[in-house]
Amino acid sequence: MRALDNVSLDLLPGETVGIVGETGCGKSTLGKAILGILPPRTKVSGRIRFQGEDLVTLPEEAFRELRGRDLALIFQDPMTRLNPLLTIEDHFVETIRAHEDVSNDEARARAVEALSSMGIPESRVRNFPHEFSGGMRQRIMIALALVLQPSALIADEPTTSLDVIVESQILGILEDLKRAHRMSLLLITHNLGIVAEVCDRVAVLYAGRLVEVGPVADIFARPIHPYTRGLLRAVIHLDSKELYSIDGIPPDLVSPPPGCRFHPRCEHAQAICHEQVPPLVEFRSGHFAACLFGKDFL
Prior knowledge:
- The chain is an alpha/beta fold.
- It has helices spanning about 25-35, 60-65, 90-100, 105-115, 135-145, 165-180, 190-200, 215-220, 225-235; strands at about 15-20, 50, 55, 70-75, 150-155, 185-190, 200-205, 210-215, 280-285, 285-290.
- About 30% of the residues lie in helices and about 15% in strands.
- The strands form two sheets. The protein has an eight-stranded mixed beta sheet with strand order 4-5-6-1-7-8-10-9, sandwiched between helices.
- The chain is globular.
- About 35% of the residues are buried.
- The mean pLDDT is about 90.
């Protein structure tokens, strides 16, 4: 089984790229593959280039030096990622001192500063994870990922547990960090509204393959792939009269359909779609799609 198949994507300094697609399409797996934290027997082929290094062949010791300091991840579910036996302060002190030669007091001061930027007061730093709400745990996880000011951040549904006010604040903080440090952000999300607001480009994943990549404004205004068109039709607007959904579900990747993996759900599918794998083609400047009939949607 291939959870991801022939995914090719670049992320420029200071750029935000959104990764969208239904559950099970490979978004979180992509983030974990970049960080090198997939299950032990998982095989990764190809190249992942970062700061001149190929992360696929990088020795684990060198990878640990990069991970957290230069390349960070905000996990989707903070309750399963925060150690229930450690205080929040302990999490930060351990992370900071693993990468920098600083005292406990200095590490603690940086932890307090990072948490304060997320609205967590100093009086709470010695609490345990179970003493916080889900939204506060998510903010702690974001602060922990940002405390070392990484040059690239992978955010896996970073605002899922948050109300819209806090969501807006956190997106603002991420934007400020991007500008100040030219931090690159790979944003994994189901929220197309967030993608439209904060991303420069968007990549659409379906059944482990990229089906469309391009500038956000272009893809939202003139999507090419039928799957992308379906996702955008499903977004609720103030003038929406009824809910829209794409018929069917993503395929089982143990035995995916031949040809275009979206063809069983595509209302525009032809016989050739059942047989031929569509290549990712540049239909407009910087706008790529993997559809044999993409010209029909220009």
